[in-house]
Amino acid sequence: MFQFLDELYDVSQSNKNEFNDDFKLTMLGSQILYVSNYIKILSYNSEILILKVKDNELNIAGVGLAIKQLSGKEVIIKGRINRIHLTKEYVVEK
Amino acid sequence: MTIQLQGAGSTTLLNELIKSNIVIHNVQIISPKCIQFEINISMYQNLLLLSKEKCYNIIVLKDNIFVRLKNLVLKRAGVCIGLVLVVVFNIIFSRFTFSYQILGLETISTQSVEDALSKYGIKKGKINNFDNNDLEIYLRKAIPEISLVSVMKKGNVLVVNIKEKLPEIDTTHYALTAPHTMLITKIDVVNGTALKKVGDIATKGEELVAPYTYDQEGTKVDCEPIAVVSGKVWFVGSVQFEEDKIEYRRTGKKIKNVRYYLGNKNIYSSVKNVSYEYFDKETKHVKAFNNLFVPLNITYDYYFETKAVNVHTDYASVEQSLIDESKSKAYSSIPNGYVVNNEKVVVSNSNGKYVITTYLESDIEVK
Fold first, then answer.
1. Mutation site for A-interface testing, chosen from B13, B14, B37, B50 by largest number of A Cβ within 10 Å
2. ipTM (interface pTM)
3. Cβ–Cβ contacts within 10 Å for residue B279, how many?
4. How far apart are CA B153 and CA B122, in angstroms?
């Protein structure tokens, strides 16, 4: 995992320290989602889970969503995930 | 462990768990203010602290005993090790035999049982490995008086419970017999077979009730005779008297013969012929010396001449004394416990010969 991240930083020519506090998502198919470095849960039911992450909110929508494991740093969600999006969207500056 | 946590909104509850770094699994929202999840025992302690701090309500739905046990063992390792040592010590210690407890003995001596145990190989103060069944069989063979035996190890005590064989009981039943010659007036048989009926006369020793009965199929069955036989018995005293009788009276003449014995051997005799028609003989043994060194014995035989004389006595003059004598004889023949109901004196005369007989009547009850 760490090797993969290192390669990712290299390929994207990004500073590793810049992303230290930022959240990370890992998805296995459309059923399992691993989120780390989230801050807290804003809302949770079987159809939507909103997590507060650094500078944003992670909105996960689907059917039968269930938290399989929850700890201070990471959460594993299982269910049929339809959509993942960030609430604060970037727009093209005019 | 499966836990339900209540006390705040579900999202708040989850965020408080996150803040406290409590790892939970399989989270379900039960209601807006209640969540259900699974948690490890190690995290459960932190959850308890959190719930105490925040006044949350915890409901344990499913407790994992193995997890708790493991936790206990880890937390109280010293106690657990001590416990294991005690158990191991107890197992080893309980294999020793320090004493015997032998129960149920009446005729068999305790020593004989202990000897048998010793011969089997069981020693006091040592570890004895034995099979209970095998030992029981051995004891039954070693002591024939044992009927049943059970062996049980109770701590350090070997408990031997013995049931001895019963002594052989004489099952022979004997008939009810008449203790005297009796006239039967009443007979009540509870058990057994009556051999006599009312009005019969049973002689002394004769069977009254036999020790058997017959069942419904007519089979003879031995039994203890139980019956009450009432009757009358008579005790008799008799005296004879003759008004004229011949008496032999000494004339005053006598002959004396002497024999000397040394031990049992006759060494000298002085014997004269006895020429009397009727005589009385008297013999007298005398020791010549009053010591044991010379065993000289002398035997004197005296022969007194007698003459027949006819003596007449009137019956009337002696009647009362003869009656009293016959009564005395009759009363002396009555065993203890008998009450005389009737007394009768009968005098019979045949050519000057009188027979005075007293009859005493008494009731008897044979059981």
1. B14
2. 0.85
3. 18
4. 12
